[in-house]
Amino acid sequence: MAPSALEPVSFYPERDGLALENLSDDIDAVNVLKATLKKENPMLSKSSFDAEKDKTQFRQYEAACDRVKNFYREQHEKQTVAYNLKARNDFRAQTRAEMTVWEAMEKLNTLIDESDPDTSLSQIEHLLQTAEAMRKDGKPRWMQLTGLIHDLGKLLFFYGAEGQWDVVGDTFPVGCGFDKRIIYPDTFAGNPDHDHPIYGTKFGIYSPGCGMDNVMLSWGHDEYLYHIAKAQSTLPKEALAMIRYHSFYPWHSAGAYYELMDEHDHAMLEAVKAFNPYDLYSKSDDVPSVEVLKPYYLELIDEFFPNKVVKW
Ligand SMILES: O[C@H]1[C@H](O)[C@@H](O)[C@H](O)[C@@H](O)[C@H]1O
Ligand SMILES: [Fe+2]
Ligand SMILES: [Fe+2]
Q1: Would you say the CB of residue 170 lies under 6 angstroms from ligand 1?
Q2: Amino acid 119: pLDDT
Q3: What single string gives the DSSP state of each residue in 35-89?
Q4: Ligand 3 centroid vs 201 CA: distance in angstroms?
Q5: pTM of the model
Q6: Ligand 1 centroid from CA 261, angstroms
Q7: Residue 45: what pLDDT?
Q8: Within the chain, which residues score under 50 in pLDDT?
Q9: Which family does this protein fall into (predicted)?
Q10: Residue 177 contacts by C-beta under 8 Å, 6 or more apart in sequence?
Q11: What residues are neighbours of ligand 2 (ion), with CB under 5 Å?
Q12: At a CB cut-off of 8 Å and minimum separation 6, what does 250 contact?
């Protein structure tokens, strides 16, 4: 019988008249269901870092050295809409190099990331630490590979970057107001877009719910590698989101810019959040042995990059 307009509709018709003492059984059932769901999606299961690490030891920007502070002042002053349009044009206009993923990891190894307060290890070691932590936690192979390559976009530094400010560091949208939850928010006062009549407003060139695919994130290693992986690998969309947004801390960790998201972005945010602990908290793990791990990862790379030689 259809419910009359005046009667409340029960969303749980089979539970109408449920006795209170059965409630704890229901809670157990929900917990079992949650565990089963997690098993089916190991990407989302908790990282082992949750119990092991003192997370307050990471990303301490107020206490950071001048190298880090100076880096962010420059990045925040120079990442403008005009620069971002130019960077994307330059990117599309050429292939910078052709080499395998492993060769790219070796090439990147000489870069010391000025924005990073948490590691003094080389890039190859950081990539292996990230991937190894995922492997130990039983994460899917595609996710391990994502961990292995996620910072390879820093190669940009060797191919016409203007410095490190357009390669590394946290990212944020350009073309709309800079959110206070970005680290060192006051340094945006020196950005020419800060007081722009459109770019300086809350939504700027965007509209509520427009979706992150339509948002221009500050140009750097995330955006660059995202385009390469999207075109040349068989990685799933969750992996591409992990790559594109892994430095977007104001979004995935501080909760800013949610008003720009569309429905698809909510699922992608979960993927990025599942990725983040491996990137950040593995930085204090033991130094991995490159030569010992190389055969395992060479095979993994081949699985997702059908053309061994990648166009960078
Ligand atoms: O300093 C780091 C580093 O540059 C990372 O590669 C980047 O992903 C982080 O967002 C940033 O905080
Ligand atoms: Fe990164
Ligand atoms: Fe990283």
Answers
A1: yes
A2: 87
A3: HHHHHH-GGGSPPTHHHH--GGGS---TT--HHHHHHHHHHHHH--HHHHHHHHH
A4: 31
A5: 0.88
A6: 22
A7: 92
A8: 1-21
A9: Belongs to the myo-inositol oxygenase family.
A10: 199, 200, 201, 202, 203, 204
A11: 151
A12: 170, 172, 179, 181, 182, 256, 257
